[in-house]
């Protein structure tokens, strides 16, 4: 059986990187896989979140999933804290994962910054909770952007060690699905930095909530170099900002970068940016409208989350029972 699990943190505005690296791929995959999509609010609090903002953002991310085209009937959409098995399995995995494995996680190093002693224990244990998210449903495939690759390798290591330690094939060895022309969308201000929710400059990213004018302004101001576009991908070498815009264009238009450059090679950035703006507005505009419609009806969003949590719990319950029996926890 093939089952997808993936998640997004409700820590502020979703951006084009989240959409092209993850959510848009989910929309396509939902036809071929049993799919579970989660708003991971427990991951969000590994760094302090304003409580009112966290609740608001949980609804916004849910609305974005649906507005992007995820069918809440066909897929399970829910928020992590509503299914207690995530925390329960994460504890077991904290006892399976080795400190040395977690010490190697580059995202922890980036997020903890210079003073690692001041980071929360939760931030350090973050990847074990992520493994629990996926394996609580025996997820076989996980569609994500490139930045999650290391975490998914750790998920495989945890599954393997658990199975070995207890001599039972309880968990599948999960496959990452890193798909499309924009698996790592970069900042619009600096082609060496990932587009991120936490960047202090709003002009570094295109948010899914930005209107057409703001999208146009941000693309117009995006950093580029003085040369026109090359006509082949090899010509993007050493031009990270150009490579990023071409990657975004290719992903949005569902073409390869080669294809885009065959057509756009030789164009000045002013022309290319105008086409990119049109394309981005065409894609994001209708999503934005649908998100706003949903957010005006929070009751509708909450009902979807509630039903999703019930369906998630129905899958998670028997898996957690199996884990408890395997570990030797009495169920009386
Ligand atoms: P998060 O919330 O940072 O990002 C959500 C998804 O968006 C992708 N992404 C990007 N893709 C391309 N370019 C970018 N600039 C970019 N920025 C973000 C991420 O790769 C991700 O797919 N740890 C996860 C959340 C998580 C999870 C899980 C994912 C928790 N449990 C279980 C999969 C399975 C995270 O922080 O994603």
UniProtKB/TrEMBL annotation:
One of the GO biological process terms: tryptophanyl-tRNA aminoacylation
Primary subcellular site in the record, as a coarse category: cytoplasm
Record: residues binding ATP: 9-11, 17-18, 145-147, 185, 194-198
Record carries keyword Nucleotide-binding: yes
Short motif 'KMSKS' region, span: 194-198
Keywords: Aminoacyl-tRNA synthetase, ATP-binding, Cytoplasm, Ligase, Nucleotide-binding, Protein biosynthesis
Catalytic activity, EC: 6.1.1.2
InterPro entries from the UniProt entry: aa-tRNA-synth_I_CS (IPR001412), aa-tRNA-synth_Ic (IPR002305), Rossmann-like_a/b/a_fold (IPR014729), Trp-tRNA-ligase (IPR002306), Trp-tRNA-ligase_bac-type (IPR024109), Trp-tRNA_synthetase (IPR050203)
Matches recorded under CDD domains: TrpRS_core
Superkingdom of origin: Bacteria
Catalysed conversion reaction: tRNA(Trp) + L-tryptophan + ATP = L-tryptophyl-tRNA(Trp) + AMP + diphosphate + H(+)
Name of one Pfam family that matches: tRNA-synt_1b
Subunit record text: Homodimer.
PANTHER family to which the protein is assigned, alphabetical: TRYPTOPHAN--TRNA LIGASE, MITOCHONDRIAL
Role played: Catalyzes the attachment of tryptophan to tRNA(Trp).
Protein name, entry field: Tryptophan--tRNA ligase
Organism: Rhodospira trueperi
């Amino acid at each position: 059986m093939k089952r997808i699990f993936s998640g997004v943190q409700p820590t502020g505005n979703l951006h084009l990187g989240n959409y092209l690296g993850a959510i848009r791929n989910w929309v396509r995959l939902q036809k071929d896989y049993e799919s579970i999509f989660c708003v991971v609010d427990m991951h969000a609090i590994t760094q302090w979140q304003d409580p009112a903002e966290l609740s608001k953002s949980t609804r916004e991310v849910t609305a974005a999933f649906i507005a992007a085209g995820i069918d809440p009937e066909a897929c399970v959409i829910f928020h992590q804290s509503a299914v207690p098995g995530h925390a329960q399995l994460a504890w077991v995995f904290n006892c399976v994962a080795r400190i040395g494995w977690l010490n190697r996680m580059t995202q922890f190093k980036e997020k903890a910054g210079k003073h690692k002693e001041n980071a929360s224990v939760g931030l350090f244990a973050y990847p074990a909770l992520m493994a629990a998210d996926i394996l609580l449903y025996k997820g076989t495939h996980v569609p994500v952007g490139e930045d999650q690759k290391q975490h998914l390798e750790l998920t495989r290591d945890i599954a393997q060690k658990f199975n070995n330690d207890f001599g039972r094939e309880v968990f599948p060895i999960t496959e990452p699905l890193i798909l499309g022309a924009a698996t790592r969308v970069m900042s619009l201000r600096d082609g060496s930095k990932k587009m991120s929710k936490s960047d202090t400059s709003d002009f570094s990213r295109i948010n899914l909530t930005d209107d057409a004018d703001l999208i146009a302004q941000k693309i117009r101001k995006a950093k580029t170099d003085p040369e026109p576009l090359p006509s082949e991908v090899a010509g993007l070498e050493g031009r990270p900002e150009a490579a990023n815009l071409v990657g975004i264009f290719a992903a949005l238009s569902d073409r390869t970068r080669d294809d885009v450059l065959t057509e756009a090679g030789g164009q000045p950035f002013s022309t290319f940016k105008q086409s990119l703006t049109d394309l981005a507005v065409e894609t994001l505009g209708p999503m934005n409208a649908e998100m706003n419609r949903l957010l005006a009806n929070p009751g509708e969003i909450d009902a979807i989350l509630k039903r999703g949590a019930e369906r998630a719990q129905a899958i998670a319950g028997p898996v957690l029972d199996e884990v408890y029996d395997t570990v030797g926890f009495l169920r009386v």
